[in-house]
Amino acid sequence: MKLIKATLILLTVVATSVATAQVDPNYRQYRFNALLLNPAHAGANAYSDVSMLASSQWVGMPGAPRTVTASGNFLPIKNFGIGFTVIADEAGPMKSNMSAVNLAYHLKISETIRFSVGIKGSVGSLNVRLSGLSTTDPNDPDMNNLTSGIAYNAGFGALLHGEKFFIGVSQPRVVSNTFNGDLTYYVETKGGLLAYGGMNLKLSESLMFRPSIMSRFRTNAPSTFDANGIFTINNKVDVGLVYHSNSNFQLNDAAAGAIFGVEFDKRMYLGYSYTYPTNKLNIVTPQCHELVLRLKLKSIGIGNGTSNNTRFFN
């Protein structure tokens, strides 16, 4: 009965959030930084860790998106997690910075299944440097720089996870920021709805297959879809494929690539992904790069029971 109730709650979150969904930075290695997707992941692992991620898309193109993130994930007491995230994102004339505190509670449904809910509070700023754009009229009064100033926001999420699977939904931001000018048509400031899931499939004593998918639902732009298929060898080495597409799933409007990762001494993980755009962007730029580093700080004996495996969510 608890499992049925938890699933119904997840479906309710999806249904009530699609209408307000917008956009956040994209990550190919989203499974390796789950706290950036959903505050319900705070404390979901049986250890504390610190992660850093750097992403550079469309290398060589002016104004190409660049993202740097850092996060800390901790389980201070049983069933209660706390996490911290910092994101610096730049794309074209837009530059944003955000810091957030994530809190999560993990409810035991059975010996192998947990239902987690999380909330987060964030503070940040969004600046649009219109004066740096080339226009036919250099004195255009509508090309003044815009800023949101210091802006506060909140988000929420839910997560259902067991020994071999996880399903999550989240709304990273629920409040629209205002600017010192009317730019709401050009800049969407609400966070998009994320829905994702993954599995751990043991193929042999030394080989595991870990597929996962993620979708971003948006109201004023095409939704996006990401898929990873990762083979983990001896619980240390990752080799896999990644795929990213808009909601039309057209091969000429997508990106494909590979993921490589190595865990050193069960304390440090280094991952890299490379993607190649299959649309006309590959005429200008043939590559996108993403690098992730995770440091596992300490195992916690009061773990939540389903993610004690050091490679569950990551």
| Radius of gyration computed on alpha carbons | 20 Å
Tally of strands: 16
CATH fold-type name: Porin
| Second rung of CATH, namely the architecture | Beta Barrel
Oligomer: single chain
Tell me the strand order in the biggest sheet: 1-2-3-4-5-7-8-9-11-12-13-14-15-16
Give a short account of the largest sheet.
Answer: 14 strands, antiparallel, barrel
Based on Cα principal axes, name the global outline: globular
Structure write-up:
A 14-stranded antiparallel beta barrel has the order 1-2-3-4-5-7-8-9-11-12-13-14-15-16. It is globular, with a radius of gyration of 20 Å. Residues 1-23 and 301-306 have low confidence and may be disordered. It is built from 1 helix and 16 strands. The protein has one helix at residues 2-17, and strands at 47-56, 66-77, 80-91, 94-108, 114-128, 146-147, 151-161, 165-171, 193-199, 201-202, 207-217, 224-233, 237-246, 254-264, 268-277, 288-299. Helices cover 5% and strands 50% of the residues. A hairpin with a 3-residue loop joins strand 12 and strand 13 (237-246). The two termini are 29 Å apart. It is mainly beta and 314 residues long. It has a single domain, classed as monomeric porin ompg (Porin), CATH 2.40.160.40.
